[in-house]
């Protein structure tokens, strides 16, 4: 019998600690990112968990041959830490000994150790297990982590409880045809389009809840804005006085995420030359007014009075940036017809809902709004839409037995990151994207 | 045009702040959990986000009639904070005015405001949207939140990067028949049984990664230990020297979760009378030895030399508790036949793997181990199993182009919570469980 006691083994030094060891020999590990041979010496870039460290191979002091190591070999090494004022870190490593832990069986099919991976998006995604090893590619998903951390910390500080709701569901929350069907032991089930029903139920339990989890949309069009599976940041809060409380909360949440990036992800922001937006006063315009403003400003004909064309979202963002300086714009009071059955209608105008979208740099990143909390009101709205309330019995249970006024939102994590980076395709901001033609890797 | 600036609206007081307002009138909100009428006054229990607060209705000072409020009505109230030494909190609230925000349309079909919800598990789950409003039921899922927070904080402090991997996948990681099939635009796809392939790929990128997300198992048996969808806590780490490094890391992670509960969830622990386990020295026994020890100790016949019967896991836990005082036990070196194709075999005995399970109070809560990182070794093992390596091209890409020695584990969040609470069915620890007969609510 052995004993496992959780006492940390003597670990190798992490990159952040190297600076405390100037003049000493340390043990480190990592992947060989790049080798640049010079006369009598070589630069060896070592990729560690979050940095790429420049090491020196010097045949006079290094106890191995430079040809022993290959790019993408994983190694352990002993290295001497030397003060080096020209280096950004203030030090430089000279490799003394290396142990090869593994090496690639052949040269890489794609160059990953240049500034960018210079290839088509198709190749980039096909070779994801290796293209993600590129310094910039992986920096992007550190920012994704940072955004989640910022959101989560903010929501927890504001008394939101984190929940885990099922993704195999008995009914779609958003309606429509873009839902995946599943054979569930001979019965039909679906993949959740959103945690909508569950987060509402949980408002009756904890007042404020959130979830960061996958959602699934069987979108049949192959666009640069859509993914068939994405990470949705959802929150839902009770005891609101107006749907504007939700927008206020979102603004604060977004600020918290940017603060987190500024505070803990400077290296990645610099590497990717990210220009973070300012968040101060975000304008909020009613949907109908926005439609008319765009038409007037750009001399465009309005073809669909009930929805935006993608081009209109872009123009609206452009226009509001010029007029107000804000890269964000809320659009409110969407037509009832275009919103789900649980959306609350405006008391002053039943044709529109007390709901909103948030556009950021030309693309919708959030949909939110107040929900119906009154049982009879919800029942009537379902009946007006020829829905069968009997199919939603467990959903309606919460309305039946008392719910506070409430609302919430869903934010697409990949879309938000993609707009932060000004990418022309949301797939760049998803580790392993799923679209109509892609389920691998 | 309106302006949304994220400046917090003047919020009502949260429960934790009430103590600073003794002698003053405050505004609060919540659901009426229970009304106990006495002579000339009543106790009104108000359920807020995390507490149940005792309020006094006194017809001499309360400006409403007690019959105006019902159990499960949502209210806003003005209340006077009085010092009250007999109260646990040191204060007591007298209700002055209430505004009814909503009320149930009929009496509840099930009593939720007693100490426990006294009903069958079937009813408990059928009525989840309201039974979760019970003080203890919801406390349970606060503990779930606390466990996740503890794990996440620990992993981030130890340089693990949080990732989001796809749940719609092209191949199952665990093999076998218990996988859900999906019609993905006319092609066949599956629901992920684990993030195995992706977390391994990401070790090549960040060295250490983790994910807390749903996984799906099409288990056809209806047992008290299985869910068809559960939340899996997965981590994977590179540059290990032995699979024991993973076990050491897990022990520290578990300690961190218990510390988080002790530090920030005392109220819930007390309410549920949870006895947290001690984690000091956890014994680790080889699978074959464990089988023989159980057989000898309990005079049982060994029927299956390659797997545990559930009863044997229970007996092993019992035996190890007696012998070592530990409620946890690692079982190591499981037979290769019973482990997936990516499990690394023991160099000294190809019949067993350098893998482990962790049992806690009689049930397996974790499976982990070292993975094959060498391309040729992985290819050979797949060929020995008559697998088609061509189907796993994108998975094998990482091995081909260099991977460090690595391994990791998956822990079932609901199972762990369920054992902490000594429940006889894992469904109690899942908000909305999915089993062969249940996809609602």
Written overview of the protein:
2 copies of one chain form a homodimer. Chain A has 2 domains: 88 residues, Nucleic acid-binding proteins (OB fold (Dihydrolipoamide Acetyltransferase, E2P)), CATH 2.40.50; 295 residues, 2-Layer Sandwich (BirA Bifunctional Protein, domain 2), CATH 3.30.930.10. Chain A contains 11 helices and 19 strands. In chain A, the strands form 4 sheets. Chain A has an 8-stranded mixed sheet, with helices on both faces. In chain A, strands 2-3-4-6-5 form a 5-stranded mixed β-barrel. In chain A, strand 5 and strand 6 form a beta hairpin. In chain A, helix 3 crosses helix 5 and helix 7 crosses helix 8. The radius of gyration of chain A is 26 Å and the shape is elongated. The model of chain A has no long low-confidence stretch (mean pLDDT 96). At the A-B interface, strand 1, strand 2, helix 2, helix 3 and strand 7 of A face strand 1, strand 2, helix 2, helix 3 and strand 7 of B. Strand 13 of chain A pairs antiparallel with strand 1 of chain B, so a sheet runs across the interface.
CATH topology of the largest domain in chain A: BirA Bifunctional Protein, domain 2
Mean pLDDT of chain A: 96
In what order do the strands lie side by side in the largest sheet of chain A? Answer: 7-11-12-19-18-17-14-13
| CATH superfamily label of the largest domain in chain A | Bira Bifunctional Protein, Domain 2
Strand content of chain A: 25-35%
Derived from helix and strand composition plus strand pairing, the structural class of chain A reads alpha+beta
**Poorly predicted sequence stretches spanning 5 or more consecutive residues of chain A:** none
**Termini distance of chain A?**
41 Å
Largest sheet of chain A: 8 strands, mixed
What is the CATH class name of the largest domain in chain A?
Alpha Beta
Question: What is the string of SSEs of chain A from the N terminus onward?
Answer: EEEEEEHHHEEEEHEEHHEHHEEEEEHHEH
What is the tally of helical segments of chain A?
Answer: 11
Architecture per CATH nomenclature, i.e. the level-2 architecture of the largest domain in chain A = 2-Layer Sandwich
Q: What oligomeric state is this?
A: homodimer
Shape of chain A: elongated
**Counted beta strands of chain A:** 19
Helix content of chain A: 25-40%
Number of domains of chain A: 2
Cα radius of gyration of chain A in angstroms? 26 Å
Q: Largest inter-chain interface? A: A-B, 125 and 125 residues
